[in-house]
């Protein structure tokens, strides 16, 4: 039973609940290792990051929550670091590395902000060729380990957020597969822990988690570590979809997932 949830957001960024409410809910749900991974501040699009001036308040809040739950639940202060944010200071217990924008011709094109923006970007920026958008997304994903150090590869195929059932582009297209595979190869080489992430399901955008099953099977074949994540933006979702995700990764060959205990990444039986 995985009672570890590390990818969560609060009112310090785009979440709906306070860190206190999130921690209380996690504890009530039997969590033993709980973390918030607030979005890094993002001057190119402030709505996508931690609110200005909140970094220290966030860290202080997590410190006092850690004290409050000492001996009952481990509380961690993480960060979901975006490629285009200023570099983080080395004060976090863990780092999730994420790409939410693709810089192209002087513009920061959002990957996951809305379906309408995604469709519009494909039309106007990539002249109808969504696979080119995906290729640029995966090239940046592969380069991320050179930009900053991180532990967890956030929502590896976020580019498919609005593409469930391949409604916008084919994820069987060889160019798409090649782009995803070369990013995967690079991140596996860097020993990143890949998320199985249910965040878009709890928010009503998708029916299945990131990444697609063929990617999970490929990760398993290469011996990559995986971690279950809710990417919760509300207290009730801290373990959203964990049971289904366990079944999914089991069907893809996994018998263990990674959890964070006492400040260490360890393997735990599913
Ligand atoms: Zn994210
Ligand atoms: Zn997130």
What does this structure look like?
The model has no long low-confidence stretch (mean pLDDT 97). Strand 1, helix 1 and strand 2 form a beta-alpha-beta unit. The N and C termini lie close together (6 Å). It is built from eight helices and eleven strands. A seven-stranded parallel beta sheet has the order 1-2-3-4-7-8-9. The protein has a two-stranded antiparallel sheet with strand order 5-6. A two-stranded antiparallel ribbon has the order 10-11. Helix 4 packs parallel to helix 5. The chain has 270 residues and is an alpha/beta fold. It has a single domain, classed as Metal-dependent hydrolases (TIM Barrel). Bound molecules: zinc ion (2 copies). One zinc ion (ZN) binds next to loops.
Secondary structure topology:
Layout: E1 4-5, H1 19-28, E2 33-39, H2 55-68, E3 74-82, E4 94-98, E5 101-104, E6 107-110, H3 115-124, H4 130-147, E7 152-153, H5 174-189, E8 193-197, H6 199-202, H7 213-221, E9 226-229, H8 242-251, E10 256-261, E11 264-269
Parallel strand pairs: 1-2, 2-3, 3-4, 4-7, 7-8, 8-9
Antiparallel strand pairs: 5-6, 10-11
Bound molecules: zinc ion (2 copies).
